Amino acid sequence: MRPCLFALTLLFALALLPLTIQGSAAWAESKIFDGVWEACQGQKGEQACIYYVLKQKDDRICGLWHYQATEEYDGRLIAESKGLSGRVTYTCARVGSETGIECADKAVPFSPSEWTKINKTLLICDGRLYALDGNGRSCADLGKSPGLPKLSSFTQPASKEDRDWMNACLNDPAYPPPQLRK
């Protein structure tokens, strides 16, 4: 009796396998920005490095970024995705970077005063992440930029504060705060 039950369970699992694989492919495709993206290059004899830790849920992208050359800057971003493109709409960072508003010490609850409204494009072209300012909106606008390769799909931020922020950013439907959406 037991071998028959095992055989039926195995047949049922095998019958569902194509559906599971299809669902996994759609799930993976829907989270195309998830991961750690990083690149370093020489700049006047010094090394300049940038990385993004991005997490995606539906069309929302929440992320952390870090830039290091002669100075170091860290920040957070909120973006909306459409296929292989994402539009960064809000950021906060260490003053002196692309924003004049520093990220709050306490990530949650959110405060509108923590964020700068921006318009920046994130693109995935040939498996690399590109961050474009200005009018760049497609892979044809990249020029000779090498982009950032995806190093890992692991997107767990190191600090508890960043983990709390990313979780709230991805799961709070009222975010960003209404005062920012005007």
Keywords:
8-stranded antiparallel β-barrel; 182 residues; 2 helices; disordered N terminus; alpha+beta; 8 strands
Tell me what the structure shows:
This protein has 182 residues and is of the alpha+beta class. It has one domain (35-181). It is 23% helix and 38% strand. It contains two helices and eight strands; from the N terminus they run αββββββββα. It has helices at residues 2-30, 160-171; strands spanning 35-43, 46-57, 60-68, 72-82, 85-93, 116-125, 128-132, 148-152. It has an eight-stranded antiparallel barrel with strand order 1-2-3-4-5-6-7-8. A hairpin with a 2-residue loop joins strand 6 and strand 7. It is globular and about 40 Å long. Residues 1-28 have low confidence and may be disordered.
In short:
This protein has 182 residues and is α+β, with helices and mostly antiparallel strands.
Lay out the secondary structure:
Elements: H1 2-30, E1 35-43, E2 46-57, E3 60-68, E4 72-82, E5 85-93, E6 116-125, E7 128-132, E8 148-152, H2 160-171
Antiparallel strand pairs: 1-2, 1-8, 2-3, 3-4, 4-5, 5-6, 6-7, 7-8
